[in-house]
Amino acid sequence: MARREPSLFIRLFALISLVLVFGAAVLMTAAWYSARGAADEAYDRLLLGAAYQIADAIRVQDGEPEIELPVSAFELLALSDRDRIFYRVLDPAGRTMTGYENLADPAGKAGTPEKAQVENATFDGEIVRVARVTRRFDDAQMRGDAVVIVAQTVEARRALARELTFRSFILVGVMGAIAIGGTIFALRHALAPISRLERAIRQRDPLDLTLVSVPTPRELAPFVAEINRFIERLRGRVELMQQFIADAAHQLRTPLTALEGQVDLLTNDEVTPEGRKHLDRIRARTGQLARLANQLLSHAMVAHRERAVAGAPVDLAALTRRALDEAIPDTLERDILVTLHTPPDPLIVRGDPVNLAEAIKNIVDNAVRHGAPTKITVRLSKRQALAVIEVEDDGPGIAREQWARVVQRFGAPSSEGKGSGLGLSIAAEVASAHGGALSFMEKGSFGFVVAMSLSLQKEDVV
């Protein structure tokens, strides 16, 4: 048993989902770094602004630097109530004018850069962001650079980074959901031709060996071409088999007819009772073999015409009369009364008259050989969109448990050697090909009905 592979839709969806998940992970990582950069940039500007305001507040009085810390500088930093602020102001001589003595100068041993700088550092056991700006004094009273160092903890900027990242996550999530929905829609639409091809093949009749003609995209064309090549090979094999059956049955008919004639001649000669008994058995078996050959030929013809002959309007009453005329010579041997009841309005079906006549003859022949002692009644009626042909005999009929088997080829041959097992199966196949079915009905202890329903021509359906 072949291992069951996952569907193409699931495989494509899984692969595309993996790509989308990977892309979302990359976007979220980029969003996190971008959010951190944006938060640092925003708070660094506040930090530098506060440092510049403090530097502008430095004054020279009698040759000594003085400072009065501006309240506005700390108000800017106080906008973030989660963080602590540290500062230190150094005069040109490197002495601390105010602030925290242990707040290190980020310039360190690298000198005293004139450009403002902001960097990460650690102060009092906490991670801080440190801004350093300088102010140059170049007059007679004081020369050199005053340094302002302002540090702030990073809780607020981290909170801002998380908020920006979360918003990006919501946006990526919404876009991801839209992408997943779009992927499902696109895959369903793209794979629709495969589903159409699958339905077209699954809904075909098992006996339909015509080529598949379903519009498909270019990628499926080789697949459809291979299916059609397989169908052509299969059709060739079936036709060869049907031709062999027809040829074999045809070739058997001539010697069997001659054999029946020879047996009939022997019956006129004087034969011992024991010989007469054996001769009757030979005659019965010869007749059975002849009927089998005829019905094999009939079956091959029905199967061929079912595919090769286009349907045409058929008057069912006239067709039934002709079929009964061909069956009546068989009934006369046993003095069976055959009656036909037809409705006043014609029953028109669309189909193959040869196959329909063959089906009716097989039903009547089955009633003659296996059922009716004295009488056969054929009724034609209309039931909604169906025309129904009922063949009723006054015999015991077929046991209910055999109904399903007798419509199969060689499903229930007669134990007495009177049947071939093909008659009713041919009728069932013809009924099915004409949109109907073969059914059975008991009528008391003696009386049995075989009913064949056929689809009426559309204009005759009321």
TrEMBL record:
- UniProt keyword ATP-binding present: no
Q: What is this protein called?
A: histidine kinase
Q: The organism sits in which domain of life?
A: Bacteria
In this chain the HAMP domain maps to: 188-239
Organism of this sequence: Ancylobacter pratisalsi
State its location(s): Membrane
Q: Give this protein's Gene Ontology molecular function annotations.
A: phosphorelay sensor kinase activity
Q: What is its main location?
A: membrane
EC annotation from Swiss-Prot or TrEMBL: 2.7.13.3
List the PROSITE patterns hit by this protein, alphabetically: HAMP (PS50885), HIS_KIN (PS50109)
Q: What is the lineage of its organism?
A: Bacteria, Pseudomonadati, Pseudomonadota, Alphaproteobacteria, Hyphomicrobiales
Q: What does the record give as the reaction this protein catalyses?
A: ATP + protein L-histidine = ADP + protein N-phospho-L-histidine
Q: Note whether Transmembrane occurs among the keywords.
A: yes
* CDD domains associated with the record: HATPase, HisKA
